[in-house]
Amino acid sequence: MKSKTILTLIAALFAFAVVQAQGNDEEMQLLFHKKDKESSGRFDNGGYGAFSIGWTQIDGRSAVNMGARVAWIANHHFALGLAGSGFFNDFYKGNSPAPQDYFLAGGYGGILVEPIVAPMKPVHVSFPVIFGAGGVTANPSGGWDRYPHGGYNYDYYDFDTFFMIQPGVEVEFNIAKFLRIALGGSYRFTDGINLQYKYFDDTNLEQTIVVDSKALNAFNANITFKFGWF
Asked: Candidates 3.40.1190.10, 2.40.160.20, 2.40.37.10, 2.60.40.10; correct CATH number of 2-229?
């Protein structure tokens, strides 16, 4: 039911962007410049590359999320491209971690669909949606020497893959004709993961922690820097 609602919303945003793109008689307005003369109503192609950094939650813990995008822009109002992100929720600061302490790290990427509303206004909104897949690992927290005889035992790392969809909304600021800065929020939905973190306890017995299958489903907040022809 939730998936149907999301897909319906995406379809509505896409239709709105198509209607908006039918005519192109505006010139981009910048935050710190006067409006230039109007364009001739032609169909315009553009594109951008971007990088972002933000905060999210992974397995119920704060995490860093870093990403990149590349997209083609159709008539200012609709972008289509590729996007990817990497994440980790380990903030080890040098204290001795317990044997059961672990962190999750991984990444995902796929197709980017982004309707843009009123792109010529100095402040406007867009609705980026990412469809794709990714992978995640469970890893021991803190340096080396976590197992008997020292070093990492790679038999006790676990890895899984997942499919995901991440709808979002961003408030964009036209800083220059080649630069936009966006503040955004999104929610990452996955089909679930299957991870087990194994470790040796203080008595040298093997123990297993089953990671929550929905550990990657979470809200994201980010700032994105976009460079290109808008």
From this structure: 2.40.160.20
